[in-house]
Amino acid sequence: MKRIFSVLLLALCTAGSLTACNTVAGAGKDMQGAGEAVHDTAQDCKNGKC
């Protein structure tokens, strides 16, 4: 019984870890997009199109 519980707990932790990786990767892409938008706006203001 302990072995089954241990395997189920390990599987649950592994699944949670994989989900967290996808979430962090998505957040990184969102931050990259926001950074590009700030960069583009700064370039526009630098060229007098602000």
From TrEMBL:
Is Protease a UniProt keyword of this protein? no
* Signal peptide per UniProt: 1-20
- InterPro entries from the entry? Entericidin
Pfam families, alphabetized? Entericidin
Q: Which GO terms describe its cellular component?
A: membrane
Instruction: Give an example GO biological process.
Output: response to toxic substance
Q: Which UniProt keywords apply?
A: Cell membrane, Lipoprotein, Membrane, Palmitate, Signal
Q: Which family does it belong to?
A: Belongs to the EcnA/EcnB lipoprotein family.
Name of the protein in question: Entericidin
Species of origin reads Stenotrophomonas chelatiphaga
Q: What is the lineage of its organism?
A: Bacteria, Pseudomonadati, Pseudomonadota, Gammaproteobacteria, Lysobacterales
